Amino acid sequence: MKRNQTRSVRVGDLVLGGNDEVIIQSMCNVPTKNAQAVIDQILELEKIGCQLIRVSCMDMEDAKAIKTIKEHIHIPLVADIHFDYKLALACIENGVDKIRINPGNIGSRANVEKVVEACKARHIPIRIGINSGSLEKDIHEKYGKPTAEGMIESARRHVEILESLDFYDTVLSFKSSDPILCIEAYKLASETFDYPLHLGVTEAGTTMTSAIKSSLALGNLLLDGIGNTIRISVNGSPAKEIPIVKELLKDCKLLKNVPDLVACPTCGRTQWDMEPVVNWVEDYLQQINKTMTVAIMGCAVNGPGEAKHADIAIAGGKDEGLLIKKGQVIKKIPQDQMIAVLKEEIDKF
């Protein structure tokens, strides 16, 4: 699926925009100054498919920790900074790959110039993040409520500051907790700017509410070719975010080497304890980088027919199931052996 054409912005060894790739990112939820905890969290996120990671920078201790963190991770690092340009300079000095800071909120033009000069010298891009809940007072009063037009107006102010300093390595985001407003804002942004777009629904809530809101908003945008990098925000561990975004990108035909899990919802015909097996397979497949379909089916009515289209499948019966590979029945498996057999088959696929 072709993406809308935008500028290319390099972040470490990644390129945002100018291609058909959508980069997966997340954000650490532990204080950045606790460098080892941050490193541990990032390494776990790398294993399940995170390609770009952001950390908060709230004080100089956080900024100084950037150097240590960078030495132990394998994906580009973004520093999230608000208001204090000195923190941006410190993060840049310590090797960060990208900063998230709104140039209109860091004081005088001289402060902005210092940050831009440092970014230019090290080829570090800037993300301008527009959130519907924190628009400038005059914009909020002008429109009376958060609107896509108001969000674009806010972004234009920040963009014009950077462009006046001959800086164009910019990424934009237009986030809201309202998925419909997200759709409107990002569509308008794609018509207004040629910068890469970071997609996200902010404050999306729990795993369930975030998956629904994000799929509604971001799925629509992705299918329209909009978006160059994506974060799905979930309350709690960032490890919850990556499986959702991978599934969304896979289903939008924007990500390869991601397994597909097919599992029936169960009904009164199901005569085995299917849920633990499905949950185990779902978790295990997060670490597998292969294009494959695994089907776990509950009964003999729909099971064999659905399972024959999968690479590896279980069609359940009473306390047991048939192992089916590429449509061929291989053998019967007692329920207590299913996980072990599935692991073996997935590993050798």
UniProtKB/TrEMBL annotation:
<keyword id="KW-0560">Oxidoreductase</keyword>
<protein>
    <submittedName>
        <fullName>Flavodoxin-dependent (E)-4-hydroxy-3-methylbut-2-enyl-diphosphate synthase</fullName>
        <ecNumber>1.17.7.1</ecNumber>
    </submittedName>
</protein>
